[in-house]
Specification:
This protein is α/β, with parallel strands linked by helices and 411 residues long. The chain is built from 25 helices and eight strands. The protein has a four-stranded parallel sheet with strand order 2-1-3-4. It has a four-stranded parallel sheet with strand order 6-5-7-8, sandwiched between helices.
Length: 411
């Protein structure tokens, strides 16, 4: 695609990245077939090809309008289009650049600004989010449905973490921002499973939000600050030889895996960011690649555990490019996996999307739950806290993180 990006933008790292991405796009339209919002709305500008055209106009200096922002805001950043694209267009990276320019050139309405400030202030801060969740549970009947359905019941007390230093092999875990308050047993379950394989898992208290919340709410400077804080917190452990940084929420995992790209022009942090990205691992990668062997451990406990539908988050299959791995582990654990139609499509959670775009998110959730229930499962499993909470709010079946199920099998 020919581009005429403004000289001002071309002089920046972001502008150079955007121009390179735009030149790869041939506007073939294959991406529209797998775009969730295009499937719902049927509008070319609510598909990747149309949004790329809008971003191109913005980067070439054309006026930014509310219409432009509306279509960009409706994008889930699910990356399904990247999986489909035959030219390897990194659409999500282009979208980051386009949204940042739009945010700079077109101020939002006051009500929209207030909502976004609240989201990027409270969600990434456990000291604020955890009390807010506790208060929200008490006041749930009084809350609007768009917020009330994001509050699951208080979790039951889980089993404790194993002793953090009992094995010479050690891995870091990202605690994250919302998961400790909403589903604190997920990382503990991961720690117990790794403990069975001779690996100690621990969290670094100085680390926090992966940066995705603020970054994707177009406060990219604050998002980068979150990333740098995590790198600083983890770096002593990296230098000490920690084997991996395990991220049990695939939404956070794809963000940490992107640190190297996002901070590539940061002289002080570029090298460290690339190293952290290389160390970032999804639990499924760790468990299936371990020579000590999770799969043999599971096969030694043969038991039929009933039907289960697995929801593969977009961040897992399109962002991290992990497909079919967790399903293999769950099958080895004794679960009968039921078919899920259109498994490539987003459930509508997408970080803060379910709050900012509740109507579209609700429609996507209805479609996803219909697909998940189609095979008559007794349980739904997923790999991302955002998807878990979003789906559970509309599901009559329990929705759980898959690592909790594995923890119960190997207990």
């Amino acid at each position: 695609m020919d581009t005429k990006i403004t000289d001002e933008l071309r002089a920046t790292h972001a502008g150079q990245v955007a121009e390179e991405i735009l030149r790869k796009c041939v506007h073939c339209g294959f991406c529209t077939a797998t775009c969730p919002t295009y499937q719902l709305l049927g509008d070319e500008l609510d598909g990747p090809r149309g949004r790329i055209y809008l971003i191109k106009q913005v980067l070439e200096g054309k006026a930014v309008t509310e219409k432009t922002r509306t279509h960009l805001d409706r994008c889930l950043t699910c990356r399904s289009c990247e999986t489909t694209c035959p030219s390897g267009v990194k659409y999500s990276h282009l979208l980051d650049v386009g949204r940042a320019v739009v945010e700079q050139k077109l101020p939002r309405r006051l009500s929209d600004r207030v909502t976004r400030v609240l989201l990027k202030t409270v969600l990434p801060n456990p000291a604020l989010f955890s009390p807010a969740v506790a208060l929200g549970r008490l006041m749930k009947p009084l809350l609007p449905s768009s917020l009330a359905d994001k509050l699951p019941p208080a979790p039951a007390a889980g089993r404790p973490w194993p002793t953090a230093s009992r094995h010479p092999r050690r891995m870091l875990a990202l605690a994250g921002c919302v998961q400790p308050a909403l589903a604190p047993n997920i990382n503990a379950a991961m720690a117990r499973v790794l403990d069975r394989l001779g690996i100690s898992l621990f969290e670094e208290a100085k680390a926090g939000c992966c940066g995705a919340v603020r970054f994707h709410l177009n406060d990219q400077d604050a998002g980068k600050a979150d990333m740098r804080r995590n790198i600083d917190a983890w770096w002593p452990h990296v230098e000490a030889g920690v084997e991996a940084i395990v991220v049990t929420a695939s939404g956070c995992g794809v963000q940490v895996r992107d640190y190297g790209h996002i901070l590539a022009d940061d002289v002080e942090y570029a090298e460290k960011a690339a190293r952290v990205s290389a160390l970032c691992r999804d639990p499924s990668e760790i468990l299936t690649e371990e020579k000590s062997g999770l799969l043999p451990l599971l096969s030694a406990r043969p038991q039929a555990r009933g039907k289960l539908a697995f929801h593969s988050p977009c961040t897992l299959q399109h962002g991290l490019k992990i497909r079919g791995v967790i399903e293999k582990v769950l099958s080895a654990a004794g679960y009968e996996l039921t078919p899920v139609a259109d498994g490539h499509l987003c459930c509508g959670s997408a970080g803060t999307y379910a709050v900012l775009q509740p109507e579209l998110a609700g429609r996507l959730r209805e479609n996803k739950l219909a697909a998940l229930n189609g095979g008559g499962p007794a349980l739904v499993a997923t790999a991302n806290i955002g998807c878990l909470i979003h789906l559970q709010a509309g599901s009559v079946l329990p929705v759980r993180h898959w690592i909790e199920l594995i923890d119960e099998v190997v207990e």
